[in-house]
Predict the structure.
Amino acid sequence: MSQDGLPQLVRSFLDEELLLGSENGNAARANLMMFGFDHGCLDAVAVGQALGDVGRELTTRLAEVDGPVTLYAWYDEQAGQLRCSAACVVVDDLPFSGPYRQVDDPGPVLERMAADADPALVPWEELREGPGGGTEPMGEYWFPVFAVQVAGSAIGCRAERVTVASHERVGRAHSFGQ
């Protein structure tokens, strides 16, 4: 298994057609790509470079798009996946219901990935009761989200499908080395 597999998958985000439009609440989900990975072969530097490459290329390709478009990526610990999406939002208004912190560098996201020795596995002893069901208060939990605005200003985004690729791809979930 090669170490360049996950960076190549991240760059494949550029092969997808993006659904844009602030009035379409499903755009972020429609643009979502999920990447499984082999912890033993994770090259965090190369994946970080790939995320930067995608951001720079989208900035070039979406230069004429009205309104904000933000590329963002995070590590979903429960699924053991790096996830990437794009939406017509400003960096400070990402479509998450949980507590997150926007970061300008993919480093904190990739550090979480690298620290997860068993992606998608939560050991029994680490399970905790949720709010209302336990006797101890939950500590503050947040996750880092790498986000970069790749188009437009803070003014609304018109609905459209933007082909940022030279060809179409089938499927949205990708797994490498599993």
